[in-house]
Amino acid sequence: VAAKGPGGGTRVFSFDPSYGNIASLRANILLNGVVDRVTPLPVALSDTTGRNVFALRSLEAGTARHVLGDTPSDEGPALYRQPVLTFRLDDLVQLADLPLPNHIKLDVDGGELAVLQGAAGTLQSPSLRSVLIEVSTSMSEAITTALAAHGLRLDSKVNVQSRTGEYLVWYGLFTRNVPGGPSPDGLAVEVVSR
């Protein structure tokens, strides 16, 4: 959606380590005619740069609740332990000469703190204006504190009710107040699917 926005759309870098999800994403990029606007990167973002495994609970594209590393999942056993490369976002920005984002969408099913820890320099950049993040209620204070340390404050929050009526996650939009600061240049980073 962001890549097809008004004024030619936004430049998007999308990170997803799942082989099924990245294949589906690439097909959708082609079908939607945004090959020049969206760059899919088949890597996991985390707090370390190196090799790891991605424990897939399902092999179907679009599934979630996978686990990076050897931590057992509360969601069930892994069907496939896919070898993956992990990067700190700060390292990948430098190594791949990626532009600093003005917006980050982050949804990694429990790995948000690790991604934020690996993105300290990116989060500190004045060009970053906002972060949209899915947050487990058990991690609310840690996530809010981590983003506040980089000058990002909670601007709006949407609580999500599960089928059983529980509020286990919420979506938060964190923004940086930069009076007279640079305007967004149409660049976004998307991190999805764990």
Radius of gyration: 16 Å
**Please, how many helices?**
5
Unreliable sequence segments: 181-187
* Percent of residues in β-strands: 25-35%
Query: Could you estimate the helical fraction of the residues in percent?
Result: 10-25%
| Shape estimate | globular
Number of strands: 11
Distance between the termini: 21 Å
Order of helices and strands: EHEEEEEHEHHEHEEE
Largest sheet, order of strands side by side?
2-1-11-7-8-10-9
Structural class: alpha/beta
The main sheet comes to: 7 strands, mixed
Mean pLDDT: 86
Structural description of this entry:
This protein has about 190 residues and is of the alpha/beta class. It has helices at about 20-30, 90-95, 110-115, 120-125, 140-150; strands at about 10-15, 40, 45, 50-55, 65-70, 80-85, 105, 130-135, 155-160, 165-175, 185-190. A seven-stranded mixed sheet has the order 2-1-11-7-8-10-9. A four-stranded mixed sheet has the order 3-6-4-5.
